[in-house]
Design brief:
single chain, alpha/beta, Helicase, Ruva Protein, domain 3, Rossmann fold, 2 domains, 5-stranded parallel sheet, 5 strands
């Protein structure tokens, strides 16, 4: 389709590109700096942002950057489950068959964590969907009690309701344990231009496919939200291909946006 028309080797605005195709922009660099500090000095990190701003992409880059053989990352994103189910999922990810009953699950998890070489890094994506009791369970896992704390670090990543959930008095103890807080904002106009150019370049295309005016307009319509940029830019490429155009200009973007309903 438009791949050949624009001399592209792959879809430039795919939802889940290879990690190497992700642009590590200023937002990500700042976030990774904080996460590196968290690795050294904390037990709990919080990442929040509206949907589509690149939170999961940040987690992919962060996970890939972790020192090999020093930390075991466990990634979970199916979080719309009960607290016991979440504990079972964690135990299963650690390579064991979950036992019945929360008490046995806690003991099994604690035993497995203590026997694992190095620290376990639990990365929970879509954490805004976690039920309140599950957050309490996580707080108990990272609490030291009267003995040494378990070798466990937790990253909670989710949409803005997660921050509101943590403001509840029931989670005051968990909130005070947050070592670093990261808010992933939408892209600025300059960052949107760099994002489009990078994704086109990784796909083997020319950065001139989108002219300056079209990139500025895409930013305005998308609000700098990466997922919306992907949707609009893809629609523009398809539309330009249908019209046998070699470039995406301001007219193409306007014609496409007349078909979108935001």
């Amino acid at each position: 389709m438009f791949f050949t028309h624009f001399h592209l080797t792959e879809h430039p605005f795919a939802e889940n590109p290879k990690t190497g195709a992700l642009l590590c922009d200023e937002r990500f660099e700042n976030a990774l700096d904080r996460l590196r500090f968290f690795q050294q000095a904390g037990n709990l990190a919080l990442i929040v942002g509206q949907t589509g701003t690149g939170k999961s992409s940040l987690l992919r880059i962060y996970k890939q950057s972790l020192p090999k053989n020093r930390r075991r990352p466990v990634y979970l994103h199916l979080t719309h489950v009960g607290p016991n189910a979440l504990l079972r999922m964690i135990v299963a990810q650690l390579g064991e068959s979950p036992k019945l009953g929360k008490d046995r699950l806690f003991l099994q998890l604690a035993d497995r964590l203590e026997k694992t070489d190095g620290e376990t890094l639990l990365i929970i994506d879509e954490a805004h969907l976690l039920p309140s009791p599950a957050l309490t369970d996580l707080r108990l896992l990272i609490s030291a009690g009267i003995d040494a704390a378990l070798p466990l670090k937790v990253v909670l990543c989710g949409q803005d309701p997660l921050a509101a959930l943590l403001k509840r008095s029931a989670h005051a103890d968990l909130k005070t344990r947050i070592c670093v807080r990261i808010r992933l904002n939408p892209l600025s106009p300059a960052q949107t231009t760099a994002y489009i150019d990078h994704r086109i370049g990784v796909a083997g295309g020319s950065t001139k496919i989108f002219d300056a005016e079209s990139k500025a307009l895409i930013h305005d319509f998308s609000g700098g939200v990466c997922r919306q940029i992907n949707n609009i830019a893809t629609a523009c490429l398809v539309h330009a291909y249908d019209k046998k155009l070699k470039f995406v200009n301001e007219n193409v973007v306007n014609e496409i946006m007349s078909e979108f309903h935001f």
